[in-house]
From TrEMBL:
Lineage: Bacteria, Bacillati, Bacillota, Bacilli, Lactobacillales
One Pfam family from the record: ECF_trnsprt
Protein name: ECF transporter S component
Keywords, alphabetical: Membrane, Transmembrane, Transmembrane helix
InterPro entries, per the entry: ECF_trnsprt_substrate-spec (IPR024529)
Species of provenance: Pediococcus inopinatus
Transmembrane segments: 12-32, 44-68, 80-107, 119-143
């Protein structure tokens, strides 16, 4: 890879990182509050990065989201429950890295040529979204399902089924949004830009 290609890749990753940070801190862009939890749209940015740039870069972008989310939890700028559960990096960071890895890898396995992108993009979008939902919910159940050792005033054992129900319900519109937006945004990038030419070499 030449210097120009490396510089271009770093610039594009920087752009995705800036979008992720903007979505995290500007109200109603990255998180839509629903009850005690938030429906997120940030996973769509990670999935787009993964299918356009590849699984490794997708994992990097996902990791940036996870780190920012973790910092938000530590600095008390997340949701009420987010400030508790997202302090654990196995919930806030690891699932977001795996979004990029899984969506990017799956797209690479499914796509055959750049004239037939829609179905691979839909499948990759749904898979990436479900990766986030399943791993975050699984982390909540694993680490907090038997009660919080941090805040004894909160009965997580009683609250966890409600959290899982609400977040699971949120996971459905998040997956639908990914299935619609990932192809709409990614297909033109893959077909008509240098990103696509590099991806299909």
């Amino acid at each position: 890879m030449g210097k120009n290609s490396s510089a271009a890749r770093i610039s594009i990753l920087g752009l995705f990182a800036a979008i992720i940070i903007l979505q995290n801190y500007v109200p109603m862009i990255g998180y839509l509050p629903v009850g005690p939890l938030n429906i997120t749209t940030i996973h769509i940015t990670v999935i787009i990065a993964a299918v356009v740039l590849g699984p490794v870069d997708g994992a990097l972008v996902g990791g940036i989201w996870g780190i920012v989310d973790w910092i938000r939890a530590l600095t008390v700028t997340s949701s009420a429950l987010g400030n508790i559960v997202m302090v654990n990096p196995l919930i806030s960071i690891l699932p977001r890295i795996l979004i990029g890895l899984i969506a990017g890898w799956l797209f690479s396995r499914l796509v055959r040529n750049k004239d037939k992108l829609t179905l691979p993009l839909i499948i990759s979008g749904i898979a990436g979204s479900l990766t986030n939902t399943v791993l975050v919910l699984g982390g909540i159940a694993l680490f907090f399902g038997n009660g919080s050792t941090i805040l004894h005033a909160i009965n997580f054992q009683a609250l966890t089924p409600y959290i899982l129900l609400v977040a699971g319900t949120n996971g459905i519109p998040e997956a639908i949004a990914a299935a619609i937006l990932v192809p709409l945004i990614s297909a033109p990038l893959l077909k008509y830009t240098k990103l696509g030419r590099d991806r299909f070499r």
